């Protein structure tokens, strides 16, 4: 599974704690992140992540490109709803793409926990079928 982690500045500690708690679940997957979030996760865990640019510099859009190609399976995006973000249009575009492609996305720890527990149970097997049979292919 391809899993991405994104966290706004005031949510980065929360993201590191979340990923650390579920490190054993994430270690068998392809992991992606925006720049600083990924660096912080790698400093605190043994996980290896492909890091894109930071969100405001285009990292959200880089992850969005994978979503648009239906090559992302799950996104944990800890947003800060109390702080205006200068790249808000990029964030909205990413969330819209997730809706279009049917990509599960958690925007807080509560939904993140639900998705990770579903991942542990194997409830995302349907995503393997999406990768195997892409739309427009015979």
Automatic annotation (TrEMBL):
Substrate binds at residues 8, 12, 34-37, 54-55, 87. It catalyses: dihydroxyacetone phosphate = methylglyoxal + phosphate. The active site is at residue 60. PROSITE patterns: METHYLGLYOXAL_SYNTH, MGS. Residues 1-138 form the MGS-like domain. Its EC number is 4.2.3.3. One of its GO terms (molecular function) is methylglyoxal synthase activity. It is an enzyme of class 4 (lyase). One of its GO terms (cellular component) is cytosol. InterPro entries: Methylgl_synth, Methylglyoxal_synth_AS, MGS-like_dom, MGS-like_dom_sf. One of its GO terms (biological process) is methylglyoxal biosynthetic process. HAMAP family: Methylglyoxal_synth. NCBIfam families: MGSA, PRK05234.1. Belongs to the methylglyoxal synthase family. PANTHER family: METHYLGLYOXAL SYNTHASE. Catalyzes the formation of methylglyoxal from dihydroxyacetone phosphate. This is Methylglyoxal synthase. The lineage of its organism: Bacteria, Bacillati, Bacillota, Bacilli, Bacillales. The gene is mgsA.
